[in-house]
Amino acid sequence: MGQLLIYPATDLGPPTTPSYVENAEGYGLTANAVAWFWEKYLDDPSQVRHPHASPLHTPDLRGLPPALVITAEYDPLRDEGERYGERLREASVLVTISRHDGVVHGFIFFSGLVGKTDAALKEACTWLRGAFAGRA
Length: 136
What we know:
The protein is built from four helices and three strands. It is of the alpha/beta class. It has a single domain (about 5-130), classed as Rossmann fold, CATH 3.40.50. Strand 2 (about 65-75), helix 3 and strand 3 form a beta-alpha-beta unit.
């Protein structure tokens, strides 16, 4: 069992991280698009901090399965994904946080076109093999 998280969205709250500001425009996924997706995802804005919608706000992450968190340098979601990984680590969950520099949100879909994509896919597959074998 494990969590393979590729540029995860973990906080539906108002964007407050540096990556939202730095990467709000010009890198594919925009901060406005993220807000639009969340608006469609939630039935009610009052659910924005519910742990099922925003796992970063789960008070206690102890006991969760091991995780691989893959982030992209030029992604509005980068910092919240990495913060979630740090919170897992603080809760004594075995976690690897892997930032891929020079790429944007969605880069995982460019296998064969972007060299860093193949490295990220290999990393994810290796991690998954270990997780399925109980070594994550």
